[in-house]
UniProtKB/TrEMBL annotation:
PANTHER family registered for this protein in UniProt: AB HYDROLASE-1 DOMAIN-CONTAINING PROTEIN, HYDROLASE, ALPHA/BETA FOLD FAMILY PROTEIN
Highest classification ranks of the organism: Eukaryota, Fungi, Dikarya, Basidiomycota, Agaricomycotina
Gene3D superfamilies hit by this protein: alpha/beta hydrolase
Protein name, as recorded: Proline-specific peptidase
Keyword list, A-Z: Hydrolase, Signal
Coiled-coil residue windows: none
Length: 318
């Protein structure tokens, strides 16, 4: 049975207005595409930047979205960091290759999709913006896993601080946690989840019940989260990256001592990334700080938005 990182039914209620929409009036926003040369081809990485990178007074923040296979949209609450009274940061979002508004490559073989591909794309983005001498990362779910791999594999000199939000340290722990939490739901929900995309509507109806408790407890579910889901779970969606075996057997626990930057680890009380799922980050990254958001599940930047931004901003500015 396939267990996705974040999922919701593809006919979700929409919020009437998001804070992101209000930010547009007060914070500069730019978007576009970055050429990404890779293995003799040039692809395009879509980006969105809030704040002024050229005249910045604070270190920019790069946000890594979850999946693999989602889009940046559901992480847009982090644009709040560009609109803080005392410590505003330029914030960079992007859709990882194969997803959403970036180049999609459904014809590529499974072996094309690997962690180093996404790290190369990240390095290309940093070079494009000329911020290789200094940046922070906030990685959510798969984004936190990817950031950990970036440090362990490449030891980037410019990374100043790291936030690992709602991320497992091993894919087996994520699966174990999901199955434990699923046991509390009715048998009909468990049966529908087990069938997966054999019955897409039944699957999503079941997952809606699970994620209303352990994915995002905000009601109705935020529009930006709906948008990210539709890219891979809507009708005629492109599931290339979502279905690629990028994280088969993945476990970074024994390598985490190599992370050499100040790190904040976050989860929610009702998160699929329960404390034991994130424990290796806390125990093995030297000096790592840890906080649990008591009213949140997998998306505390929606569920306890103000507190989340204050916590992250304080850590980045420390």
């Amino acid at each position: 049975m396939r267990i996705p990182f974040l999922a919701s039914v593809f006919t979700l209620a929409s919020a009437s207005q998001t804070h992101f929409a209000m930010l547009k009036a007060t914070v500069e926003m730019k978007e576009g595409h970055i050429p990404f040369p890779y293995q003799g081809e040039t692809h395009q990485t879509y980006y969105k930047v809030f704040g002024d990178l050229e005249n910045r007074t604070r270190t920019p923040v790069i946000v890594l979205h979850g999946g693999p296979g989602l889009s940046h949209d559901y992480t847009l609450p982090l644009a709040d960091l560009a609109d803080l009274a005392d410590h505003s940061y330029p914030v960079i979002f992007y859709d990882q290759i194969g997803n959403a508004r970036s180049t999609r490559l459904p014809e590529k073989p499974k072996e094309f999709w690997n962690i180093d591909l996404f790290l190369d794309e990240f390095d290309n983005l940093v070079q494009h913006f000329g911020i290789q001498e200094g940046y922070h990362i906030v990685g959510h779910s798969w984004g936190g896993m990817m950031a950990s791999e970036l440090i362990v594999r490449r030891q980037p000199k410019g990374l100043r601080r790291l936030v690992i939000s709602d991320s497992p340290s091993a894919i087996a722990l994520w699966r174990k946690s999901f199955m434990e939490l699923l046991e509390k739901f009715p048998q009909s929900v468990k049966d529908a989840v087990a069938k997966g995309f054999e019955d897409r509507v039944g699957y999503w109806n079941a997952m809606q019940e699970v994620y209303a408790v352990h994915g995002c407890r905000v009601k109705p579910l935020p529009k930006d989260l709906e948008t990210s889901m539709l890219y891979i779970y809507g009708e005629n969606a492109d599931r290339t990256v979502d279905e690629a075996p990028i994280l088969t057997g993945w476990d970074i626990g024994s390598r985490l001592h190599e992370i050499n930057v100040p790190t904040l680890v976050i989860n929610g009380r009702y998160d699929i990334a329960q404390e034991y799922v994130t424990r290796a980050y806390i125990d093995n990254i030297p000096g790592a700080k840890f906080i649990t958001f008591e009213e949140s599940s997998h998306t505390p930047f929606f569920e306890e938005r103000e507190k989340y931004m204050e916590t992250v901003a304080e850590f980045l500015g420390a």
